[in-house]
Amino acid sequence: MHIRFEFSEQAEEEIVIRCRAPSERCQRIMNAIESALSEGSAIRLTRDNTDYIVAHSDILYFESGDNHVYAHTKAALYTAPYTLSNLEHLLPISFVRVSKSCIVNVMHIGRLRRELVGNGEIGFTDCEKMTYFSCSYYKRLYEKIQEMRLHHYEKQ
User: SS3 for 75?
Assistant: First the structure.
């Protein structure tokens, strides 16, 4: 693998990743670049007919219901002008889909309670809010938690 940077004052910034075939390694590199580019970024959300710019890092989870997508922070509930499918592509790598109707920021997970059959419960640090994960999404959730722990320790 070769890494090459080209600098030019006239060129538009562009990041190109060339891989022989799609691989987990290339996907991890792409995710890391996307995460670095989106660090400190925010999303527009609505509450009480007022738009707010909320940092991704403040969001606990997104959930769909009643034909809306809601964003939960520790202190507030917002409406998001996106579908969960759109959010999966817009959010940084710390977010993972945990059910058909929920995307969670794993950086805020404080506890997981897995039932023998069916769904499990997700609790968040420093607040009483909670949501549920589907057993079919558990493996991806667990992998994302491990990935983010590794990513966190590598930064230190």
Answer: coil
Q: Please state the pTM of the whole predicted model.
A: 0.71
- Signed CA dihedral, 82, 83, 89, 91: sign only: positive
Strands 77-80 and 102-105 come out as unpaired
Q: Does position 125 have pLDDT exceeding 90, yes or no?
A: yes
Domains of the chain, start order: 41-155 (2.40.50.1020)
CA separation for the pair 149, 129 (Å, rounded):
22
Full strand arrangement of the beta sheet holding 77-80: 50-55, 42-47, 77-80, 68-73, 59-65, 102-105, 95-99
Quickly list H helices, the chain. Answer: 24-38, 84-90, 138-155
